[in-house]
Amino acid sequence: MAEIAPSVLGADFGHLEREINKADNAQVDMLHLDIMDGHFVPNISFGPGIVKTINNLTDTFLDVHLMLSQPERYFNAFKKAGADNITFHIEVHPNPVQYARIIKALGCQAGISLNPDTPVEHVLPYLEEFDFLLVMSVFPGFGGQSFIPSALQTITAARRFIDKEHLTTRIQVDGGIKSDNAPEVVAAGADILVMGTAFFQAEDSQSLTRQIQSL
Ligand code: DX5
Ligand code: ZN
């Protein structure tokens, strides 16, 4: 059973309430919120104010993906805004354990993410501290990019390690996932699929959700 996490970056912000209701009506597993600072990634998205707005529209689990050079400056603000999980990137901090503990002390779950060109070995030693591993299958910054196939090897290696060590860390995959490549991503070992464009532009978001959840 895979889970689906629509990325609100792919939503129509002119009709945000309608878009959040669409995800709720489809009974998605969580909402993925992409936060970009124009420094760690070459794009700027939105901040805690919009997260709070979304939190007021839904009871769904809010999974906040921080693409920030200095994520630690904002952990508290996103927790206050309603984040249930906070994920940051290994590339900004070679030893992420301290940050994981700060996030958990705030009462959030914690996730660690890696870019497509970061070796999976960089995160494996720390996974026991994290609830989620977010494998990027595009270079972060923009929705609507194509899935990078080498992410499948990263997912496979992470799955093998998590199973061997009996960890509870769940693998999320983010970027370029559509209904046609979702099966191989799940077969490689993903637990949760982030889908921006594919979810919010789907003709039938409910049947897409059911399809993913049946994988
Ligand atoms: C990439 C973001 C993703 C992305 C997913 O920078 O982290 O969450 O928006 O969007 P799609 O599914 O359109 O690739
Ligand atoms: Zn993301």
How would you describe this structure to a colleague?
The longest helix has 14 residues, at about 150-165. About 35% of the residues lie in helices and about 20% in strands. The protein has helices at about 15-25, 50-55, 75-80, 95-105, 150-165, 180-190, 195-200, 205-215; strands spanning about 5, 30-35, 60-65, 85-90, 110-115, 130-135, 170-175, 190-195. The chain starts with a strand and ends with a helix. Strands 1-8-7-6-5-4-3-2 form an 8-stranded parallel sheet. It has 8 helices and 8 strands. The chain has about 220 residues and is an alpha/beta fold. The protein has one domain (about 5-215): Aldolase class I (TIM Barrel, Alpha-Beta Barrel). The model has no long low-confidence stretch (mean pLDDT about 95). The protein binds D-xylitol-5-phosphate and zinc ion. D-xylitol-5-phosphate binds near residues 196, 197 and 198. Zinc ion (ZN) binds near residues 7, 34 and 174.
What is the fold's blueprint, element by element?
Elements: E1 3-6, H1 16-25, E2 31-36, H2 48-57, E3 62-67, H3 75-81, E4 85-89, H4 97-105, E5 109-114, E6 132-136, H5 151-164, E7 170-174, H6 182-188, E8 192-195, H7 197-200, H8 205-213
Parallel strand pairs: 1-8, 2-3, 3-4, 4-5, 5-6, 6-7, 7-8
Task: Write a concise synopsis of the structure shown.
The chain contains 8 helices and 8 strands, in the order E-H-E-H-E-H-E-H-E-E-H-E-H-E-H-H. By secondary structure, it is an alpha/beta fold. The mean pLDDT is 97.
